[in-house]
Specification:
mainly alpha, two-stranded parallel sheet, 2 strands
């Protein structure tokens, strides 16, 4: 009986709870944050945001932005997906870095994670 009880806790704490937390984080970070408060005016520069802060305030330093980018699986430039849907995700940052100033002039906004 003890081994059965232990196995249940291993599955619960080792698989089910972490899985649910990961799914919740993915939904929050990849769906809610980039599209929250965006102007839904069709495909355009204001339909999503660039995630550049963690708790509001000023933009992150380059090193912190790179760490945030890794945590978000390079999806912090998700706005590129809306502008160029045919572009593979691993090229988002190259396009963003090349045209960053133009995107901001055209209405791309920045947002924070929380």
């Amino acid at each position: 009986m003890l081994s059965n009880h232990f196995g249940f806790h291993c599955v619960l704490y080792g698989i089910l709870i972490p899985q649910r937390l990961a799914v919740g984080f993915l939904g929050y970070a990849f769906d809610y944050v980039p599209h929250n408060k965006a102007k839904q005016i069709g495909i355009g520069y204001q339909t999503t945001h660039r995630i550049s802060r963690i708790f509001g305030g000023e933009a992150l330093s380059i090193v912190k932005q790179q760490i945030l980018s890794i945590v978000l699986a390079r999806q912090d430039a998700h706005v590129i997906h809306h502008l160029y849907p045919q572009l593979p995700f691993y090229k988002y940052h190259a396009v963003w870095n090349k045209h960053e100033k133009e995107f901001y002039k055209l209405g791309v906004d920045q947002t924070s994670m929380f």
